[in-house]
Amino acid sequence: xxxxxxxxxxxxVGAGVIGCAIAHHLGRHDVRVGLIDKxxxxxFGTSKxxxxxxxxxxxxxxxxVKGPLEWSGxxxxxxxxxxxxxxxxxxxxxxVAFEPDELDTLDTLLQQGREREVPGVELWDADRLRREEPxxxxxxxxALHAPTTGVVNxxxxxxxxxxDAADNGVALMLDAPVGQIAAVxxxxxxxxxxxxxxxxxxxxxxGLGADHIxxxxxxxxxxxxxxxxxxxxxxxRLDGLVQHIIFPCPTPTSKGILVIPTYDGTIMVGPxxxxxxxxxxxxxxxxxxGLVFASVQRLVPGISPGxxxxxxxxxxxxxxxxxxxxxxxxxxxxxNVAGIQxxxxxxxxxxxxxxxxxxxxxxLDLNPxxxxxxxxxxxxxxxxxxxxxxxxxxxxxPTFARIICRCELVTEREVADSIEHGASTLDGVxxxxxxxxGRCQGGFCTWRVMQLLAAxxxxxxxxxxxxxxxxxxxxxxxxGEDPMDVMP
Length: 488
Fold this sequence. Notes:
Elements: E1 8-13, H1 17-26, E2 33-36, E3 53-54, H2 66-84, E4 88-90, E5 93-97, H3 100-115, E6 122-125, H4 126-132, E7 142-146, E8 150-152, H5 154-167, E9 171-173, E10 180-184, E11 187-191, E12 196-204, H6 210-215, E13 224-234, E14 245-248, E15 258-261, E16 267-270, E17 274-276, H7 286-299, E18 308-319, E19 325-328, E20 334-338, H8 344-361, H9 387-396, E21 403-405, E22 410-411, H10 412-420, H11 426-433, H12 446-457
Parallel strand pairs: 1-2, 1-12, 2-9, 5-14, 12-20
Antiparallel strand pairs: 3-8, 4-8, 5-7, 6-7, 10-11, 11-12, 13-16, 13-17, 13-18, 15-16, 19-20, 21-22
Helix pairs in contact: 1-5, 1-8, 2-8, 10-11, 10-12
């Protein structure tokens, strides 16, 4: 009997930041890899709503899987961001104590940092804290400072990792929800919406769906709980209000509600941490907003709900084990990478290395490494260059002179480039260029972006969506027809 050769050596289910990091790492080796996701674009699940913090390495409890991965991942983000052109900056963080017993919590965090040899972690007294962050609540008793904490755009990281992986031979399959996985000779057969693929190994990095993917091969060693976090984005006029990421003292279930100066100059506040039955529940609520702003006003009294320009929510996949679930399973060749809540973004590069080690132990030959295709240099956004260079660009290419998004100063050329690099939806353009992320939240630029998408994809306007199937913006109708009769 002739055996059918597998299409892939490794099929990665899930193209969030974890799946993309694994694909990027495996792309350095001479193996056939497929990266499969149900969404229209990479990072469109939990990753797009991530807070974007690269944690210093001292927050996760000792004796956990996530603890050492947090610190190892932190150290890899600098070189990785430089290699792939990902926006990244080490801004440092402060965990602030308001009560005497919270000072004991700071001591515990300090000890965890020392155990992991996290550099620069130190306690600040109230006087030092007021000098460094004059807009913090003056009632604060002190804080723990960790200078190695950074900020990154998580969706940008997903795009960069996936694009580099594709340049190095990884096959990207989007709009491809996995409905079935069957064991076959030589590995597995995965059934997606419109095709079947075979792979010797499967890496289950499916985020909120990881327990369902595991169940397809008969595994039930963990259960995922959806924990929703609401986040609120503030007007750029508050840029500089704080210099560091501001944490309250943590609780057993959460690092708390934070004040986060993002890489792009906006301040983000949140998230909440509420368990939800519906893992697709991305609603924001009056109660959530009330909790977030009451919490952050205790940290930074100058913040007001009136500063909010956008709100969103993400649902984190929390394993009932209380820790990351990473490793081989009872099904040979099937590897779980599940329950990757915070600090999953931080740990992503280290998780990718760990998964490669697991696959190697399972029998995958990762030697030799092949010659890596150098990353394509990413042009500096127009908003980040001076007037003289903007004028020079516009003289060479008039599309650089046409401003599509006034709030974030995004040009027609940049939108077109994003489409050429894979953006096929409004959100795909937004996350690649920031068009629609500013104060008016797309009120000025949405229609023009839709026109450019329609032209770039060669589709009618009615086929342009916000984030893929079902998220239509406009519909076609004939004269005299009731629009409600043609709504999907």
